[in-house]
Amino acid sequence: MKHFSKKHFIVIISAVIIFTAAIFAAAKTGIFSQDSDRSDQPAAEKNAADDSGNAPSGDQRLLAEHYDMKLKLDTEKNVLSGTVTIDLNNQTEDTFTKICLKNPSISFLELKEPLAPRSKTQVQVPCNLKFSKKAGRFGYHKEGRRKTYQLGFCLPALSMYKQGEWDTHPNRPDSEANFSRVSDYDIELETPADYTVVASGTEDRSVQGDRAVTRISARSMRDIAIVASNYIAPETIQTEDGVSIRCWNLDYKGMDEYNQFTLDAARDSLHLYSETFGKYPYEELDVVQGFLGDDVGGMEYPGLVMISLPDVRDLRELPHDGIHKYIDYSRLCCVVAHEVAHQWFCVTVGSDPFQEPWLDEGLSKYCEDVLYPQSRMDSIKKAMEADKKSYPDHIFPAGSDKKEFQNDMNMAIEQIVGKGPYYINKPVSEYEEDDYSSYVYDGGTYFLYELEQALGSDTFYSMMREYYQKFYLKEATGQDLVALMKQYGAPDSLIERYIES
Question: Is the pLDDT of residue 275 over 90?
Fold first, then answer.
């Protein structure tokens, strides 16, 4: 998720943003060969085997191997109803009489029969959710007869069970707690025929009369998100990496340039991260416009990212010259780059976003502020040129050159971090609300920037490629990443300044 306030969509960017902005020229990297790519392998097999094919020894697991959902969206009553069937596989030595479910809140489901060790069962969960009219991950936006429904973190899902304990941390508006292993999903969603459904995975739509059924198939995903709207349409490109990128744009006039920059940034960042870290695990990436609230720029889900439209009083009444007077395109491109980076860090390499949010937000913020903008790919270069023409005094988040960025970054680190400690690896609950973003997002960027300077770019990115390959469609901890840093020669003094042991 990308946090920022309304001022990020205004032309004048503060000095703090300069400090935390992007940098060091893109590292020299080659196309990554993903030897451990098992994206076509069923989730059950990936969860049950390590690289050698053996069952995991230290981490016994309770798995949700498959979700089968039959759902109906009532756009008159604003209700989602249906059933969710979950195939459970108990690989632990524990017997379960109930299971913990997340989304939209924490609940416990009593099992009809105890689930014995090394056995499987199937449970059915009713789904009856009332949408609120609000901007957010779960809610709907309405303008006359035009509606958009956003279904994020709302469908029942098995909570993580580790070392005899359930993860009962709820999702909060300013953070996430959706920690899970990869599963397979098959969903049938009935809607009015004039609604288009976009989801994690792939969709197949059939229409009968005034109703439509969209069948969603998602493989090896940790979660799933759905958007349904009666005024949305895609623009699709095929990347040189063989991935289909679909940018889903809501029907507002004056948005052509905005939509194009979104698509271009998604294309460039996906290619950049594929070269730098390793291959994207899915065939598609959906980039969907939506409404997430004033202080949230975007939200990540497996195979799908949402980009929040800017805070404009009425998007239907934009001036003929479009939306550019309300935002800067270079900032938009960096927000898209942040959300796409999450496809590598929290989607492919899973981590606990509540206990260790720096593992996904810190790494994605580094990509947003450092790797993507200083790569000077076409999208960010053209966005900066467009902003400069409209606003001659505009200060770019990417900085004008490498030396300027390094000076700004070093000054920010000296003023904010100093000699430390500046611990970025605490749980969400241990940060004050105003400190969470500064430590986890910005502090993560500072740490990785300093680590890159200490190791050298080639060594730093070799380390990150190994991290991605080792935990591809698995789960990593901060200890895992720090151990790898030490193997590659990271100074203890630097690690101890940011990581509390």
Answer: yes
